[in-house]
């Protein structure tokens, strides 16, 4: 019903920046939550950031993992129906496959998403 496609991954040097995009198609929601997760080789999938839009674009609730606070920012472009993850001051430990996810009427502190993208690789070199 909802398709999510991530893009923007690649190779970047430590200290650099990268912006990931997640384009949504199909059925969309008036009250929805978008999340970003990542998984590195040999590691479990971990939460990165989430935001819930239940009204106008300025009315949102956001949550970030402690490891990315102050460096990553989640945002949206309602016209393009796209959610972004701006990643600054990247570190080698940020290297992972990044996935976006979506859910309807869900708290940003919940982790039960209904739709997932295919993922995009981010590699941060020293």
Observed structural traits:
mainly beta; 55% strand; 126 residues; four-stranded antiparallel sheet; single chain; 11 strands; 0% helix
Average per-residue pLDDT, rounded, comes to 92
Instruction: Provide the structure class.
Output: mainly beta
Tally of separate helices = 0
Rg (C-alpha, Å) = 14 Å
- Please state the overall shape, judged from the principal axes of the Cα atoms: globular
Q: Regions with pLDDT < 50 over 5+ consecutive residues?
A: none
Ends apart, CA distance between termini: 41 Å
In percent, how helical is the residue content? under 10%
Instruction: Please outline the major beta sheet.
Output: 7 strands, mixed
Range of strand content: over 45%
List the helices and strands in order. Answer: EEEEEEEEEEE
Using DSSP, what is the number of strands?
A: 11
How would you sum up this structure, described in words?
0% of the residues lie in helices and 55% in strands. It is mainly β and 126 residues long. Strands 2, 4, 5, 6, 9, 10 and 11 form a seven-stranded mixed sheet that branches. Strands 1-3-8-7 form a four-stranded antiparallel sheet, with no helix packed on it. The mean pLDDT is 92.
Short account of what is shown:
It contains no helices and 11 strands. By secondary structure, the protein is mainly β.
What order do the helices and strands come in, and which of them pair?
Layout: E1 2-7, E2 10-13, E3 18-26, E4 32-39, E5 46-53, E6 60-64, E7 72-77, E8 82-87, E9 96-104, E10 115-116, E11 120-125
């Amino acid at each position: 019903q909802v398709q999510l496609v991530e893009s923007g991954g690649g190779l970047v040097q430590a200290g650099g920046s990268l912006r990931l995009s997640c384009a949504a198609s199909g059925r969309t929601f008036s009250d929805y939550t978008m999340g970003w997760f990542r998984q590195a080789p040999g590691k479990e999938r971990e939460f990165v950031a989430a935001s819930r839009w239940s009204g106008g674009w300025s009315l949102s609730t956001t949550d970030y993992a402690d490891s990315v606070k102050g460096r990553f920012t989640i945002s949206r472009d309602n016209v393009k129906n796209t959610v972004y993850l701006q990643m600054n001051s990247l570190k080698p430990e940020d290297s992972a496959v990044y996935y976006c996810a979506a859910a309807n009427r869900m708290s940003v502190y919940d982790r039960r998403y209904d739709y997932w993208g295919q993922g995009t690789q981010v590699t941060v070199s020293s």
